[in-house]
Amino acid sequence: MTQDIGAQLAEIVEAAGAVILPLWRTGLTVDTKTDQSPVTEADRRGEILILERLAKAFPDIPVIAEEASSADGVPLSIAKRFFLVDPLDGTKAFVRGDAHFTVNIGLIEDGVPVAGAVHAPATGETWFTAPGGALKRQLGEGGGAAVHVRPRGETVLALTSHTLKPEQYESLQAQYGITDRQPMDSSVKLCIIAEGGADIYPRHGPTMEWDIAAGHAVLTAAGGSLTTPEGQPFVYGKAAEGFRNGWFVARGGRGRPSPLAGEGGRRRRTDEGSRRPVR
Questions:
Q1: Using CB atoms within 10 A as the burial measure, which of 17, 84, 118, 203 is most buried?
Q2: 60 vs 256, higher pLDDT
Q3: Does 271 reside within a domain?
Q4: What CATH number should be reported for the domain holding residue 115?
Q5: Alpha carbons 250 and 202: distance in angstroms, whole number
Q6: For the chain, what is the mean pLDDT?
Q7: Do 256 and 164 belong together in one domain?
Q8: Which pLDDT score is estimated for 8?
Q9: Dihedral sign, Cα of residue 145, residue 59, residue 79, residue 15
Q10: Are residues 26 and 125 in the same domain?
Q11: CA 25 to centroid of chain Cα atoms
Q12: Cα(56)–Cα(205) distance, integer angstroms
């Protein structure tokens, strides 16, 4: 089954995290790419490891990776089955010394993310797809515990970008019924919704396919959804658009929690800097 790949991807993102983490908070030189986004040696080293591991484990599946795409350009076409790789999502957080940066690999089939793994090196957390659902584990643990989105209640916690302006937030509040928000970097937002720690992540701004493919796969496997704001399917493999995404909204709260997911699979709201529960 395709979703069995999730465990293999989890091992690869954890190995990349082991390369990246020693460079965190070391004052790395930050370069600027042609799109004005930052890149560091941590991004490059992580991607090299991931590409080597994917080539060995899945030699017949092509890969679209962020740093290679930035250096060499994106392909004009892509196969129906391919990997999307972001070796360090949340580079700005990484440079600031914040914990919210992730390593991401997603597998796309016919425009849909069918398997994926996301690792947060600073906290040692890994989320990944599995047959019948999504799992989470701490670095060094075998297997993983099942996670599931939480039912939507009267309080609707949104995870948003740090760059969201007050007037933009007010508009999102009115559109999505948001009652509270927590700014946060990287694809970890999708994983926190997947494990029941928040309710919604509306993104009315630019992203690339590799930014969210892995987290999208995990969220869907955990019972959530990621669609266009109009509720249409969110597709991947948009080579004609340079693999750029349009607006989207990620949601939990659609469906009952899995009987496999106990309280250990839920997350309370976390402090932005330390990921500790806010009491």
A1: 118
A2: 60
A3: no
A4: 3.30.540.10
A5: 6
A6: 88
A7: yes
A8: 97
A9: positive
A10: yes
A11: 22
A12: 35
Q: Output the domain CATH number for residue 168.
A: 3.40.190.80
- Lowest mean pLDDT across 26-30, 105-109, 156-160: 26-30
* Pairwise CA distance, residues 165 & 144, whole Å: 37
Residue 255, amino acid: G
Q: Kindly state whether residues 111 and 169 are assigned to the same domain.
A: no
Q: What are phi and psi of 221, to 5 degrees?
A: -65, -25
Q: What angle do CA 238, 242, 243 make, to 5 degrees?
A: 45
The string of pLDDT tens digits covering residues 126-182 is 999 999 999 999 998 888 999 999 999 999 999 998 888 889 999 999 999 999 999
Task: Tell me the C-alpha distance between 1 and 162, whole Å.
Answer: 38
Same domain, 165 and 141: no
**pTM for the structure as a whole:** 0.88
Is residue 271 predicted with pLDDT exceeding 80?
no
- Asked if 134 and 249 sit in the same domain, the reply is no
For 204, other C-beta atoms within 10 Å of its C-beta total 16
The total of other beta-carbon atoms located within 10 Å of residue 224's CB is 26
Domain presence at residue 232: yes
Please give the pLDDT value at position 164.
85
**The domain containing residue 260 runs over which residues?**
157-265
∠ CA(69), CA(95), CA(250), 5° rounding? 65
| Res 67 pLDDT > 60 | yes
Query: Are 221 and 258 contacting, i.e. CB atoms less than 8 angstroms apart?
Result: no
User: Which residue among 126, 147, 168 closes a domain?
Assistant: 147
Give the C-alpha separation, 69 to 91, whole Å: 16
Kindly calculate the radius of gyration of the chain based on its CA atoms and give it in whole angstroms.
Answer: 17
Which tokens sit at 89? 């999502």
